[in-house]
Design goal:
alpha+beta
């Protein structure tokens, strides 16, 4: 095949050889431009647009975080001095009508026991603890009681 190409190349005139060479160079440049350069620049433009959108989103989130922090600071001022975990747990439970049979402070965590509590009331209390005070359940031991819709909290460990 190489021999056939050489024979063909020798058979055409010098002017045709220059024309084919220029055409080959042009085709090579066209392949490089549309096959590599153009897709790379298009991808670069897309990446720049994504970066701008991400920076705008970050700016928006930072603004909203500042608003939320201010709202949290206002809420803490509204509640007076910052309450400790024991006060938060006992006051919120009292508001929900939950009374403890046992409450123990365990190094910054609170362990409580409740004999009988309505399940929905218990879930509402945990929701208030989580949403308003950022208190979460670390460990729990619950059991069913003979009364329908009520549970016994053998051990509930709460903490920040």
């Amino acid at each position: 095949m190489v021999e056939q190409f050489k024979a063909w190349w020798q058979s055409i005139s010098e002017r045709e050889q220059k024309l084919f060479s220029l055409t080959g160079v042009f085709l090579l440049l066209a392949v490089i431009y549309w096959g590599a350069w153009k897709p790379l620049t298009a991808q670069l433009d897309n990446n720049k647009k994504q970066l701008i959108r991400a920076e705008q989103t970050l700016s928006w989130v930072e603004d909203k975080a500042a608003v939320l922090r201010k709202a949290g600071a206002a809420e803490n001022k509204k509640n007076g001095n910052r309450l400790n975990l024991t006060q938060i747990v006992t006051r919120s439970a009292k508001k929900q009508g939950i009374s403890f049979s046992r409450i123990v402070d365990r190094k910054g965590r609170i362990e409580v026991s409740v004999n009988d509590v309505e399940f929905n009331r218990f879930v509402n209390w945990l929701t208030v603890l989580s949403n308003q005070y950022s208190v979460s359940v670390i460990n729990s031991d619950l059991s069913r009681t003979d009364k329908a819709g009520y549970i016994k909290i053998n051990r509930l460990l709460l903490g920040h």
